[in-house]
Each structure stands twice: as structure tokens, then as C-alpha cells.
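User: Can you predict the 3D structure of Argininosuccinate lyase-like Protein? Sequence below.
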Amino acid sequence: MEHKKLWGGRFSASTDSNLEKLNSSITFDKRMYAEDIEGSKAYAEALKKINLLTEHETTQICKGLDRVKIEWDQNLFETKEGDEDIHTANERRLKEIIGEPATKLHVGRSRNDQVVTDMKLWLRSHLQDLDKIVKSLIKVIITRSAHEIDIMMPGYTHLQRAQPVRWSHYLLSHAWNLKKDCDRLDDIVKLINIMPLGSGALAGNPFNIDRMSLASSLDFDSVTQNSMQAVGDRDFIAEFLFWASMVGIHLSRLAEDLILYSSKEFEFVTIDDTYSTGSSLMPQKRNPDSLELIRGIGGSLFGQCCSFMMVLKSLPSTYNKDLQYDKEAMFTTFDKLKSILEVATGTVKTLKVNQDKCKNALSFEMLATDVAYYLVRKEVPFRDAHFLAGKVVAEAERKGVSICDLTLEELKNISSSFDVDIGRVWNYEHSIEQYKAIGGTAKSSVAKQIELLEKWLM
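Assistant: Sure. Here are the predicted C-alpha cells for Argininosuccinate lyase-like Protein:
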């Protein structure tokens, strides 16, 4: 009945059944049952300190909430009609267990400050889970890079063969993107660790709650300084959704590479059977569905971010019911990101790199830049050297041969700076090993990258 609602005293008519369904968020926010109970227990202790609850009432409430949590943990909790959200459901059940003292718990507190507190508690703990999975993927990449450091492959720009690189250097490029994602989490945690509880509906708490002590009990670093801002603030959700979008983009780019590299046209890698599927019609097919799903879901994460940003865009100050979408966005994004991170980790860990295919894809035309560098070392200005190296490529194309097959006489016709030592340029490993500066593809530089990432993971 309507009078049983937390807000029902002012109303004389029942809520429309369609609005009732639309208004309810229990199907989503029940995932925050533990955080809601944690926040309620801490708030009960804060009420006791200002003598709005007795010691006995506080004990009753906390023990009752522990029992509610056990019911949730064991999947025994039964939601009932009228349980609009997790806060209503937990309070209703607490009253069923301990009676009248449960009705005192909400004094000075609103679902407006309660829900944003619950969300911060939930997201803070679950970001740690995502951080661990991202780091697991980075660890897999590091391990592969160390073991496969001598494998050479073409590096690409514009999807055209560019310069020879180490396979490990390529893999580590994705590890560094993922490390940046981990670093960004620190800023999100700082936003999360500001406690909004004690802001009430919008005007604050009239009972002189010790908010700093309350924050400390819930492991927040500080408290919000403006109650109106606090109850309407979802910046931390927007930051999380953007962060998840960036992780999804990084995973999607890795997936796209591996999809191409696993095709028959490349065959640089083979996706393990455990992360591949077949065709219902074509028996020969090995489809990289794991990577395609990562690529597809990665895009949908950005869709969630855009959608939620549009919710925030035109909201007036403080809390508005539009914000109920925050939980759906947060939970859906978390679930999707967690799933593709786990699949990406397994796919990268189990794939086979085909060393001979990688090496055979190298061509001497990829050493055209090395020809320019050769001329630079002969004191030819780089712009001139670049032009002359282009002439070498054009001459080889005109003759229908590789640039390494041009005779010294033909090269001297292009520039007198060419000499017999040009033969040293036609060596892929020599080309790779010249990039010893920090961040390069030389073996020493790649080994340093591995060392730095390993230290960071410790």
C-alpha cells in the first residue's frame, strides 16, 4: 500500500503501475546491498555519538543489518512489492527483523546522499578488481615479450609496411597503453574518496553529525564541502565511464591488430582453439570471435559514456531522477569491461606467434630509411638524404628489383656518397639494433622496457 512507501505520507492516490516499474531501480542497485549495509552501520554509529540512538538500539540495528547481509549473501533475501531500491528494501527488512529501532536509522539522511555514498563504496572496491585484471594482461605481455624478444616483424604505419621492429616491441606498445590506464585510476579514486554522506537531501545534516569521523570509518579521505553539489555529483561515474571507454579502445586496437595478424594474408599469429570459433557452413574456418567481441564491446563502452554524459548535460542543480540511470551505466560498463579484459588476457596468453612468417614478411624496401641514415652518416643533410633514398626506391621500382639488388654503380649515379659499405645496410637486425635510444626497438631498449614495467608491477 502507498502509505508504506518512505515518502508516501503526503500522497492520497496510488502510483501508476507503469510509473512504478519505471521508478524502481532494485533490479540494478541490489548489487550494492553490502555497501548500503556498510554505510548504514557506520551512520548508526554516528547517530549514537550524538545521542540519537542508544547503545542498545545501535547494537540492534547493526546486528539486524548483519543478518540482512547474510540473507543477501546466501541469496535468501526476498524483495517485495514496494521495494523501490536497495535502500528501501534493506530498511524494510531491518524493521521486520528488529522492529521500531529500524525507523530511527534514516534520521537526517536522504536516499540522495545515501545512494551516491553506496555507489562510491561499490565502485571503489570494484575498480581494484579491474586494476588487477589490467595488470594481469600487462604481465602476460611482459612475459611473452621477454621470451620472444628475438622475433622480428614488420612495423606498420597506415597499415603499410614501414620499418623492421621486434615483435616484443610491438607487444609492449599495448602494455604501455594499459599502464596509462592503470595510472588514470589514481585520479578517479581521488574523486571517489570524498564522502557525500551527511549531505541530506540537499541542505545538509541538521544534527551535527561528525562527518569526518564518519568518513574515516568508511575509509574516505575527506568529505564534500557543499551539500547541494554532493547529492547531484556524478562526475566520478562519468570519469569511470570515460576511463572504461579508453581501456575498451586500447583493447579494441590490440584486437584489431591480432585479427589482421591471424588472417591467412598475414599468419603472424594463430589464435588458440580455446579463443576461436568455427563456421556452421565452412569447416576450414577458424574465426577470431574472442577478438571481434572485444572490438565490438569496446565500442559499446563508449556508447554508455556518451549516453550518460547526455543525461548529465541539461540537469538542474542537486538530485534529479534522471540520475537513476547512473547505476545501470556503472554496472553495465563494469561487467562488459571485466569480461573483455579477461578474454583479452586469455587470448594473448595462449596465442602462438609464427616466427618464420613474421621474418619472411620483412622486405628490403623497409630499409629505405636506413639508406637515408647511411647518407646522413656520410654528412649528407637529412632532407637531401631522404630525397636521394626516394630516388633509390624509384630506381629499384623502375628496374623491377629490390633496392638491395641495385649495383654500386647505379647507386653512385644517384649520389656519389654511396660506397661499398652500403652492403651493411641490408641487414634487418642491424637496422633494428640502431634504435638504442630510450623507447626504441633495439634489444637493449626493449629489455629496459620490460625491466621498468616489471618494477612498476611490484
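The longest strand covers residues 160-166. The mean pLDDT is 93.
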